[in-house]
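step: validate -> pass
step: tokenize input -> pass
step: predict -> running
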Amino acid sequence: MTYNPVVVGSGLVAWQFLKATQDTQRAVFDKSTVLKRDAEYFREKIGTINSAEDLVNDRRLLSVALSAFGLEDKIDAKFLIRTVLEEGAEGDEALANRLGDGRYVALAKAFTFEKVLNAKTQEPGFGANMIAQYREKVVANMEAGLAESSDTDTAYGASVREQVAVNIETETAFFKENIGKVSSAQGLINSPRLYTFAMITFDLQDKSGRTSLIKRVLEQGAQEPQALANVLGDQRYIDLAKAFEFDRAPVSPMAEAGYADEIVSDYFLHEFEVAVGSVDESLRTALNFERAIPQLAAGDSSENTKWFQVLGTTSLRNVFESALGLPAGFSQIDIDRQAETLKDKMSARFGVESFSEMSEPKVIEKLIHSYLLQDQIKKGSSFGAGQTALTMLQSIPRRSLLG
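step: predict -> pass
step: emit ->
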């Protein structure tokens, strides 16, 4: 069952009604059986996708992904989308950046197909138990050595204890500072101080020279019965393997908790915008603007790049051109002049000096109101433009035009 949004009136009146009822209407709209099924499919499958090719070959997944970024009309442009996804959005030469449309940039940034090894050594608090074990082992070895040489209660013994205490603190500090940089068995072995720290902690000093053996123990972990640590039958190896878990399989960032939910949320919102557009296209444009501008403003792109993305995104460009009363031929002038004109107009009319200010609700509201007003004037039928504007202004609560 498909829910058709309810829109009362047109222009600003319709916008105010839509905003007042949007939460209620969304609650009903989001219960659509088709939407819910597609969302569940996306959540279930996206973490298993290993490449851009896999994604574009699954039409159902691709449909949700593209709709979330307002690119649903590109569902059959598989080569274009695949190239955008494979090249990402890091370099200036990446297709997403060259297309000059912020939707492609957002899509490329959202999907990455590089498997990432979430090393246990990089988790907060890693090694706390190892540090305690290391301290205990070093102190025990020291005391055993002093007892063997009958220096337990001598001045020499006291001196040794003092020096060992300093050494423990030094090595512990080094371990804390550097263990997060290690994400593999070979990386641990290649760091002599960290490797020694681990060998002492698990009482394997006598095996330190057998680096090939230790590497295999670490890489195979201790999850499977046939893993070397379990085959050796020595608890020290098992404890070492479990502590580092270098056998962890690389995972896709798209499999992480919350990733799919963000895409699905944008998908639902975009589909609601499309449904509203089937009733009133100008309201769809306003909803899209309200969602997209804060996201663009929060991005790490330069000021000019953000304005160029506005100019390259039809729906955003339309709002600015209408709200600022720009002439029909505006899009034909040099792109740099277009960007400068938008900046100047936004500064003069709305007091906006930087793109980051575009995320302020009051600025967005004023732009949308101005856009809808100008849009309704253009659509005025038998009335003159002045009479149309006067009629609309008289029907709108004064508070909607203030501040």
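step: describe -> Confidence is low (pLDDT under 50) at residues 381-403.
step: cleanup -> pass
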